Amino acid sequence: MQENENSDLIYGLHAVTESLVSGRVNKLFVQKDLRGKNIDKIKDLARQKSVKIDWLDKTELSKMTGNGVHQGFGAFVSEFEYQELSEILKNLQAKESATIMILDELTDPHNLGSIARTADATGVDAIIIPKHRSVGITPVAVKASTGALQHVPVVRVTNLSQSLDKLKEAGFWIFGTDMNGTSYDKWNSSGKVALIIGNEGHGIGQNLKKQVDEMITIPMVGHVQSLNASVAASILMYEIFRNRRF
Q1: Residues 160 and 233 placed together within one structural domain of the fold
Q2: Range of the structural domain that residue 61 is part of
Q3: pTM metric for this prediction
C-alpha cells in the first residue's frame, strides 16, 4: 500500500457506510470471517458504487488501522472536502435562525468527532476550525463522528478572528463558553448563533474573547472546574435545539 493512502484511511462500520453512500470510497477492506446483516449491507453498497472489496484477516486489518476499533471494516477515501465560509454564509443568508460551531484550537480528534455527531443530530449548519494548532478531519475524528462528518459542513480557516468579523457582518451573534457568564438555561439563543468552544486545556483564546458578545456558562456543583469540551458543546447545542423546537 502506498504511504500517502494512509492519510485517507477510515475505519469502523458507520464511518465506512457513510463514506460508501457519499461515493468517497476508493478502496474497501473487509474482514474475511464476518457474517450477518452488516456485511450484507456493505457488500450491497459496494456493488452499487462499483467498489472492489479486499478481504483481509482480522490481524491484517488491525495492523492497517493501528489497532483501532475497526469492527471489520476499513477504507481508503478521497481527501476530505472542507467548505468555504463565504459559501456557507451565502446559503444561510435567507434563514432567520442558524447555528455555527467554532472550535478554537481543539486538539483531540475524539472531541471533534463527538461534537460533529451532536451537531448533525441538532441541525447545526456548519463547524469552523482553524488551520493551525488544531486537529483536522482525521480517521479517528471520522470514526468518533460515526459518519456525521459526511453530513455537517466543516470550514477550515487561517484566521478565526477575521472569520468572527465576517459572521458578525452576516448577522450572527457570537457566544463563548466560560466559567463566568450567563447561565445556559437563561441564554437567548434565538436568531443566528455562532458558539465558540475553547481548547481542552486553556479554553478560548484572549483575542477571541474580545469579540464575543456574551459568555455562556454551565453551572456545576462538583469538585471539577470544567466539563469535557465535547460534553459542554453537546449541552449547549441541545439547548439551542430545544429553544428553537419548543
Answers
A1: yes
A2: 3-77
A3: 0.79
